[in-house]
Specification:
The chain is an all-alpha fold and 86 residues long. The protein has one domain. 62% of the residues lie in helices and 0% in strands. The chain contains five helices and no strands. Helix 1 crosses helix 4 and helix 3 crosses helix 4. The chain starts with a helix and ends in a 17-residue tail after the last helix.
C-alpha cells in the first residue's frame, strides 16, 4: 500500500473518537469517513478513498472500537429476562 495512504489511515484511526463520535457500527462509519476524505483529501481518487476507509475500519475493528460502542446492547433492560415470568 502507498505510504501516503497508510498515513491517512493511521491519522483517521487515531482521530476516530472525534471523527466517529456517536457512530456505533462500521456501516455507519463508512459514509462519515468517505465525507471526511472528500473534504480533507479531495485530490485522492475514489479507489484510494475506498482503500483508506477499508483500512481504517479494519484497524478500528481489530482495536475493538465498535465493540466498545455497542457493548451495552441487550444487557440494558433486565426486565426482559426470564425472571419477569415469576
Amino acid at each position: 500500500m502507498n505510504p501516503n495512504l497508510q498515513a491517512v489511515i493511521n491519522f483517521a484511526a487515531d482521530e476516530a473518537d472525534s471523527l466517529l463520535d456517536g457512530v456505533v457500527t462500521p456501516a455507519e462509519a463508512r459514509p462519515v469517513l468517505m465525507d471526511w476524505l472528500a473534504d480533507n483529501h479531495p485530490s485522492l481518487r475514489k479507489a484510494e478513498h475506498l482503500q483508506i476507509v477499508s483500512g481504517v475500519l479494519a484497524l478500528l475493528e481489530r482495536e475493538g472500537f465498535f465493540a466498545s460502542s455497542v457493548g451495552g446492547d441487550g444487557a440494558e433492560d433486565p426486565s426482559e429476562s426470564d425472571e419477569a415470568d415469576e
